TrEMBL record:
Signal peptide: none annotated. Residues 14-121 form the Calponin-homology (CH) domain. It comes from the Eukaryota. Coiled coil: none annotated. InterPro entries: CH_dom, CH_dom_sf. SUPFAM superfamilies: Calponin-homology domain, CH-domain (SSF47576). It comes from Tritrichomonas foetus. It holds the Pfam family CH. This is Calponin-homology (CH) domain-containing protein.
Length: 304
């Protein structure tokens, strides 16, 4: 997690193109538009204006050319999209509609999409989790470094009981732990071969699909590692989905904050009968799960 988020690493340019193209496709999915190469397919401004309408939740303020033929029409479309984003609070640095239309600078286009991801994906999931923040705190969290750091802090806090995987040096294990914390039926963390990154990555991708989380990173990307920007782009979508899963109220016991007590019953996923134990959601037959045993003993010691 050391890459400068304001720079494009040449080693990761191809990966960022793939991930950012998939992110853009996911946004444009309601329109049935597929973007295979975001550095080449936004040049006429058509998809860019449509992206702006979806992300800003506003219609274009003036007519635009849906089938541009000449460069000036394409540039005007791009200018319109950038104007819509700017009016919605997006801050671009040294980019114009002509820059996008020329398509001579891949890093510039990738920088444009990354700026949108920060605002509408990473920033959006942080806004939901930080609803109680003051206006000054929210303003600070909208800064690129603050938004990504807040997302990483959330991830690390969620898996702090999973040992050294919380440092995200092995992202396959870190993401596996993150999903296990919510859906242990999809990722049996204690059963994973910690030395087989590829198999763990396959489990993670399968879990993404089961949870309807858009798969931006392929198995090899998760197994071999990726740059910060592509990781944060994927993690924002993971958090967006996990935030919809049930959370349990906190209680106070002997001055210690605990999670809700053990509850038996139907977990809100078809056919799965779970025992809910704090933030660990485990099957009733997971009696041999080491973290479950530790949590249970801890609560027993407290007389809870």
């Amino acid at each position: 997690m050391t890459e400068n988020l304001n720079k494009l690493s040449g080693d990761y340019a191809k990966l960022q193109t793939k991930v950012f193209s998939r992110w853009t496709t996911n946004v444009l999915r309601p329109l049935g538009i597929v973007i295979k190469d975001v550095t080449k397919e936004l040049t006429d401004g058509v998809a860019l204006v449509q992206l702006a309408e979806i992300l800003t939740k506003k219609s274009a303020p003036r007519k635009w050319d849906r089938q541009p033929k000449i460069a000036i029409q394409k540039t005007q479309n791009c200018d319109l999209a950038l104007e819509m984003f700017t009016n919605d609070g997006v801050k671009f640095v040294s980019i114009s509609g002509k820059d996008v239309q020329d398509a001579h600078n891949d890093s510039l286009t990738l920088g444009l999409i990354w700026t949108l991801i920060l605002k509408y994906s990473i920033g959006a999931v942080q806004d939901k989790s930080g609803a109680s923040q003051s206006s000054s705190q929210k303003a600070q969290s909208n800064q690129p470094g603050s938004a990504t750091q807040a997302l990483m802090n959330w991830c690390k806090d969620e898996i702090k009981d999973y040992g050294d995987v919380s440092d995200f040096k092995q992202i396959n294990l870190s993401i596996a732990a993150l999903i296990n914390n919510y859906r242990p039926d999809l990722v049996h963390f204690d059963s994973l071969d910690k030395n087989n990154a590829n198999d763990t990555a396959k489990v993670v991708v399968d879990a993404f699909k089961a949870l309807n989380i858009p798969v931006l990173l392929d198995v090899e990307d998760i197994a071999n590692g990726c740059d910060d920007k592509t990781l944060f782009t994927q993690l924002a979508l993971v958090k967006q989905e996990l935030d919809t899963l049930p959370h349990f109220g906190e209680v106070q016991e002997r001055g210690i904050t605990l999670k809700a007590p053990v509850t038996k019953g139907k977990y809100p996923f078809p056919g799965k009968n779970f025992m809910l134990h704090g933030r660990l959601r485990v099957y009733k037959n997971w009696e041999n799960n080491s973290r479950f045993r530790a949590k249970r003993q801890e609560r027993a010691n407290l007389g809870y």
